[in-house]
Amino acid sequence: MAGLAKRIAWRKILYSTGIAVGLGLLAFQVWQGALTYRQAQACVARPVYLGAVMASYITAYFVQMAAWALIMRSLQAPLPAQAVVEGYALAFLPRYIPGSVWGYLSRNEWLAQNHQVSYGVSTTASLIEAAMLLVTAGLLGGLFWLPTLWPNPLLPIAILILGLAALWLVWRNTPWLARRIFMKNAATTDQFNRAGVHALALWSATSLLYLFFWGLQGSALVAIAHTLCRGISLSPFAATAAAALSWAIGFLIIFVPAGLGVREWTMSALLVAFTATEPGQASLLAVISRFGLILAEVVVLLIGLHSQLINRWHGRKWLPDDASLE
């Protein structure tokens, strides 16, 4: 019993430290983004589009939360919408620490402490989420890019079929793979015996949400282009493909925190390749995009923290008693 209490105490310390470091790195990125924007002497001619940029990015965060909540529901670990809003972004802040795994470990700890979700189930949800984001990003990028390299009327249909098949394989087989990995833990095994990805409706809804998520990312890029003094014309599909592929490449470079720098460089190169945008303009779009994403994340965090404060005011706790984990 003493050993369990000690492990719980260490997990809480690591969880709190990760959140603190993540907040610090997020604040640093806000500062860096402001400096970069100033140094570029960017000119904003149509500020009304800035509202569309922020609305797209904030909505995208909530769409991502909704998709993850559906994945949790499919694993028979449903969470109230309020709990998702309060904890999703905050628990994932440690992703700004080099190594993508830290954000997922922090989320696992939040789910275990606050919602008694086993690490096996939460890890499975994270694997499905990451895989579906990567597959949908590759699907959109492939649908835009490959037909320009090999013009063929059947190629888009083949890409779409392969993408949907890959999404279905992820949805059906990830729980089986995770069950094999986490089978040694009896509590996890019991929860996995009750869990499983079954509903076609859930798979369809989750897939559509991730495609909508990338569409919002592309829409934000188009709005940023309309904001600047020197008019830049972007195709929404090209902007969506560039945003999705740059995120995927930044995600796969795991030793770079949150793909910082890598994602911007990739987005700039893809915008030049996809839309014939000048390199300087493409770099500016990528930097402003990162800055907008960070500001949107701050807004989402504040919404979640505000909800937590209201709950605390009404007597609810953010961290559960230790006894609830025994």
Quick structural gist:
This protein is an all-alpha fold. The chain has helices at 2-39, 48-74, 81-91, 101-115, 119-149, 155-182, 186-194, 200-227, 236-252, 262-275, 279-313.
Q: How many DSSP helices?
A: 11
Shape: globular
Q: What's the Cα radius of gyration? A: 21 Å
The share of residues in extended strands comes to under 5%
One letter per element, helices H and strands E, the order comes to HHHHHHHHHHH
What does the largest sheet look like? none
Low-confidence stretches: 317-326
Number of strands: 0
When the domains are counted, the total is 1
Q: What is the average of the pLDDT values?
A: 77
Distance between the first and last residues' Cα = 8 Å
**SS-based class:** mainly alpha
Classify the helix fraction into a percent range: over 70%
Describe this structure in words.
This protein has 326 residues and is mainly α. The protein has one domain (2-30, 46-325). The chain contains eleven helices and no strands. It has helices spanning 2-39, 48-74, 81-91, 101-115, 119-149, 155-182, 186-194, 200-227, 236-252, 262-275, 279-313. Helix 9 runs antiparallel to helix 10. The longest helix is centred in the N-terminal third of the chain and has 38 residues, at 2-39. The chain is globular. The N and C termini lie close together (8 Å). Mean pLDDT is 77; it is low at 317-326.
